[in-house]
Amino acid sequence: VQLQASGGGLVQAGGSLRLSCQVSGFTSDDYAIGWFRQAPGKERQFVAAIRWNDDRSYYQDSVKGRFTISKDDARIAIYLQMKNLRLEDTAVYFCSAGSSFYSPNEHFGQGTQVTVSS
User: Fold this and answer.
1) Residues 99, 105, 108, 112: what is their CA dihedral angle, to the nearest 10 degrees?
2) Distance of alpha carbon 88 from its chain centroid, rounded?
3) What is residue 42's DSSP assignment?
4) In terms of DSSP H, where are the helices of 1-118?
5) Lesser CB count within 10 Å: N end or C end of the chain?
6) What is the pLDDT of residues 27-42, one digit of tens each?
7) Which positions ≥6 away from 93 have C-beta within 8 Å?
8) pLDDT by residue (tens digit) across 59-99?
9) In terms of Cα–Cα distance, which of 17, 33, 5, 7 is closest to 107?
């Protein structure tokens, strides 16, 4: 599975960003595609996931109501729309894939930096 993330950047607190992830190489509709993030000095943590075969989504509690994960079947891509960003959302965001819907962590792409400033 290959995952190519993009869309990170610098944004002020309260602002929005949209991350994109181009996906290729997976053959199972049971796969979930998602996002993890890692802040400096902290462990990588789950953010959100979407199951490819039924669009069911799942979020970490701290991003519920602010982040939305979606997919584009034609482009074979997923997106993470982030709104009302907070300083604590600053991290490197990684696109991921796996068979576990609640933590699809079998494959990771390269990260994209998201920096939220005050």
Assistant:
1) 120
2) 16
3) S
4) none
5) C
6) 766 789 999 999 999 9
7) 5, 8, 19, 35, 36, 37, 47, 80, 111, 112, 113, 114
8) 999 999 999 999 998 889 999 999 999 999 999 999 999 99
9) 33
